[in-house]
Design goal:
By secondary structure, the chain is mostly helical. About 55% of the residues lie in helices and about 0% in strands.
Amino acid sequence: MHNSFASTGRGHGTDLALVAGLLGFALDDTIIFLA
């Protein structure tokens, strides 16, 4: 992750979003929010 994502990504859930995307989860999948 680069620029602003490098410093704020974890707090904004970017790390979860990247992993969920790689695993093929849908954008509105509720399991993402349970992590």
